[in-house]
Structure formats: structure tokens, C-alpha cells
Design goal:
Length: 116
Amino acid sequence: MRTIEIDTESFLFDSPNGVFRAIPFYNLSLMEWVIYEDGIPTYYFSFDRRRDPFVLHLTREMNAGKDLNQAVQEIGKTLNRNWTIDHGIQGKEIENTWQSEKVKLLHITELNQDIG
């Protein structure tokens, strides 16, 4: 599994627990996704790579009626991992607080890759 670096932005969010900075990955295309492991952005995959076994498996699961997050969570469970595609940011974005970020993610392409 190779590491990729994504140029993205973080923003400040205001919540009942205070202000915090988070990366919602707004700049990704509709074909690109981040998998959060225990709330931390860890993996990346893209439906543009239709022949990757990981993408093929997700596509089959969605064609069988599962939503994408459910399929990702189930794969994570088989690997004893807590996975989701939901960034989990709860709060109101504070305007004009963007900051450039570089984030390293593991590009997952296979189902049987050595994860972690």
C-alpha cells in the first residue's frame, strides 16, 4: 500500500464543546473518499480506479443494496478496525478560517492488503 499526500484545507468549527480545527476534505471529487479509522483520516480510495479489487468489492456491495458507509464499516470490522467515511465533524464552520494542509493517507486498492 502506498502513501499519498493530499493538498487540502482545514477549517475552524464552533461546537458546544468549544472551537476546534478539522479537515473535512471538501476539495475531493465525488469519486474520491477518505476512510477514517477511529476518527482519524487514514485511508484513501477512488472510484476512478474501477478495477481495483477494493473498489470492485465496494461496488458489488452497493449494487446489493448497501450504502457506501455500511460497506466500508463492514470491511473494517472484518479487519478488527473501526472504519467510516463520515468525518464526524459536529459544529458550525467558522467563515474565513481555512488553512492549507498536507495530509498523508494510505491508498487502499486491495482487500487483502496488510492494514496497519
